Amino acid sequence: MSIRPATPSDVPAILELIKDLAVYEKAPDAVKSTAENLHEALFGADPKVFAHVVDVDSKIVGIAIWFLNYSTWMGTHGIYLEDLYVNPAFRGQGYGMNLLKTLAQICVERGYSRLQWWVLDWNEPAINFYKSLGAVPMDEWTVFRVDGEALQKLGTSTK
Amino acid sequence: MSIRPATPSDVPAILELIKDLAVYEKAPDAVKSTAENLHEALFGADPKVFAHVVDVDSKIVGIAIWFLNYSTWMGTHGIYLEDLYVNPAFRGQGYGMNLLKTLAQICVERGYSRLQWWVLDWNEPAINFYKSLGAVPMDEWTVFRVDGEALQKLGTSTK
Asked: Which domains does chain A have, with CATH numbers?
């Protein structure tokens, strides 16, 4: 087993795991992404999103997809983990933990002050796992999102 | 009044507004950032964080500090708004709204699918304002954070 940065040939397997995660998150039709735009995002010019994979005998069984955030308070970047997923047939072997450790190691090496991600409130097994690692729920905060028609409207209205 | 991308000479004024926002968020001592590292983050080589300002007669009275996120479901980038703040003496004139519109416009122009930010749960005036723009609270989700000693420990433990 190795945890390593993704390479272009991993893209189809990564996309499959993204789709599996969407099913687990009860949104089976949510993935509009294609292998082409995932490839462009991860391996195009000056990428802004990154992936690490769990490689077991050349099979990709886990992914961490992440990008940089920034803390105006700390004055440093941090890592925001967008997707963390391990194929259910390969759970219980510490792969998820090792993906998190790999990202934490990048934070420590680069002087990033925070590693963050978000979790569905009903996903108790994940929440308990994260708390066991010293992660703290930011319970006071709620993320707001504008997308779709509301974003179009806001972005094209006169100022 | 103009809303425009920040320039290097805006850094001291931006930092003051970051500090004012921390006071409003009941964390007056939270800002460790300095003018030097804010300048480096915004205007160093290949910046990963960006700022727009509200400029009223050459006085900076509002800021939006943001970076790119990425949706694995949509296969596109989006904007994550880290800080939005308007000097209280200059509120009620639509500056906050116009900062949000500016970011929404960037999303529309670049094909980004989402504009996101987070809000303290007790900040009802802000929450009502955001809902009036079509923003939706992602109530099902909680952000987890590892930082400080827990991050060091996670990042230096053996895998």
From this structure: 2-156 (3.40.630.30)
